[in-house]
Amino acid sequence: MRPYIDCHNHIGRTINRVPPVGQNTSMCLARFAETSIYSAISMPTAVGSPINRGVDDIWDQNQVISRACQSFPDRFPIGLALIEPRFGEKGVEEVERAMSELNLAGIVGHPPVREDAIPFIEVAAARGGLCNLHLHDQLMVNIAQMFPQAQFIVHASSYASENLAKFDNVWFEVVQYPDGRGSKWDFTALANKVGQERIVFGADLPYYDYRFLQKILETADCSDQLKDRIAYQNIIPLIQHYNPNWQIPTEPIQSPRIYQAEHLWACNTQHTDRLTVYA
Residue 8: in which H helix or E strand, if any? Predict the structure, then answer.
């Protein structure tokens, strides 16, 4: 299989799902080893992560990402900090701290993203940061226009491809489905709308069994050149913008642990592309 670089990897736990779901750094690397993921942009879990201790929990989760980047710099060349708008100014200060003290390259926000996220985006934009907002609506159009110094990764939905292609600071993430369960990717049509150089691959661990998406891309009716661009080539200059000395590794990582498949890839019996592993 061709190399893959994942623009959308969460490390941590989501505790408000039934069953809960999560992965630690070692499990993440074990999955990468089996699926030709050479490197990834990593971030805390952005939905239902623990916040019993308020901003202290956010700090701990951002530290996990920072440690992963420090321990495995070729596999996690940059990381993003979690934002939590419910914490108001304290949350904004936490983003400033994460980017300055932990050397994280930007922010990730969980849906629903609303106007109260703008002060957090401003912190990242002031530093030329990268923002993954899980957002593709009119607010995202306004934000992309409002913050031209930031870089944004958005879900490559039909709305995004129609309304955000005009912004040269937006990257379009192929992840799960384009427009909800059952919709199908047309990579050539997407490239014609947004430009073949701005489409990137997102695995969305620990929620989604991205092997389904890899199979869709590998068997798609489009050129191998476009497949290579989506799988790994396009994201390289974006990563190097924040980490100029990074180079894609020459081979996948060796798994730090041998897992049983039913443990590493346990799934929802009704939706087999949804993972249920909690680590």
Answer: strand 4-14
- Eight-class DSSP state of 79: B
Task: Report the SS3 class of residue 184.
Answer: coil
Q: How many CB atoms lie within 10 A of CB 23?
A: 24
* 119/232 Cα distance (integer angstroms): 32
CA 209 to chain centre: 14
pLDDT in tens, 153-189: 999 999 999 999 999 999 999 999 999 899 999 999 9
Tens digit of each residue's pLDDT (9 = 90 or more) over 73-101: 999 999 999 999 889 999 999 999 999 99
Q: What string of H, E and C letters represents the secondary structure of 121-166?
A: HHHHHHCCCEEECCCCCHHHHHHHHHCCCCEEEEECCHHHHHHCCC
Token couple for 272: 């087999």
Rounded CA separation 205/2 (Å): 19
Structure pTM?
A: 0.96
